[in-house]
Amino acid sequence: MSRERCEVGAIETIELTPSNLKRGFAADAAVAAMSDPRAASGYIVELFETEPLISASDHDALGFHRSVSTLQAIFYEGGAGLLATLLPSPGGVPAIEVMLTKSGEQPRIEDRRVVQVGTSDIVAPVQLDRDVQRHDTLLRRLAEHPLVRQIRFPILIETTETQAAANTPMPFPSVQRVANGRYPKVGVIDTGVAGPLTTWVLNRHDFVDETDCDPGHGTMVAGVLIGARVANNPQLGREEDGCDIVDIPLMPRVPFLSVYGQRGFEAFLEELEAAIEEARDQHGVRVFNMSLNVVAPVDPDTYSIYAARLDDIQDRLGVVIVNSAGNLAGNEWRAPWAAKPTQVLAKLAARTNVDTIYMPCESVRTIAVGALNPPGSTHIETAPTTYTRRGPGLKVGVKPDLAHFGGTGDLANAQATHLVSCDAVGNAVHTRGTSFAAPLVAKTMAALDIATGERLEPRTLRAFLIHNASVPQPLTSPRLRDVARQFVGFGQPSSAAEMLETGEHAITMVFESRLTAGERKPAILRFDFQWPAPLVDAATRSCRGRVRITLVYDAPIDQAFGTEFLRVNLSAHLRQRQPIDRKDGMPSFRDEISQVFLPRTGKLTIPERALIDHGLKWWPTKRYGADFGAGVGSSAEWRLEVESVVRAEATFPAEGIPFSVILTIEDDEGAAPIFQSFRQALVARRVDMQDIRTAVRLRAQSRR
Question: Which domain of life is it from (predicted)?
Answer without folding.
Answer: Bacteria
